[in-house]
Structure prediction request, 210 residues.
Amino acid sequence: MSKSQVLKNAVIEGDAETVKKETSVALKAGTPAKTVLADLIAGMNVVAQKFDDAEFYLPQVMVAADAMITGINILEPELRKSGTTAKVGTAVVGTVEGDIHDIGKTLVAIMLRGAGFEVYDLGRDVPIERYWEVAKEKDANIIGVSALMSTTTLLQRRVVDEGKEEGLYPKVKVLVGGACTTPEWAAKIGAHYAENASEAMKAARKMMGE
Prediction:
């Protein structure tokens, strides 16, 4: 098995010790940090697919994300030397005001961290203006707005409208999801759509041009 595959498998298995060891060995052997990062991301992509296929569940995703972040932390100094960064972008996520469901939103945050995003999870029952306050403060690229109920889904539109009023939208993109959210609704309000956490990760990376 190649070193690349060993590292990829370690992420899939959530084996942080092996990720730490193999990342360090690869760097000492002269492997470019960007190449090692690509292997870590490839492993997380497999985790996302396994989650989609109901082969993995939330605990496995969390452990895999932690393992990947272990590797990213080792790579960060080398990536900075080469003028690049492991960070893909910055995302602010939360469940809208009046809605206390946050399992899906929490999983999205985990997936985004595993994909290399710096994530600020605002939790649940988040006031509309709070998304944009944090987005402005942290220079965010993406706001993720979750809503489970039909009544709170309507607030996703208000998040977009608030961004327009603040002059931050569409520079800061809005990603919506939740049980009552549809692609048609997202298009209508000017947002991007993700059906689940792994699709949110893919959509966010696409928004960042990856």
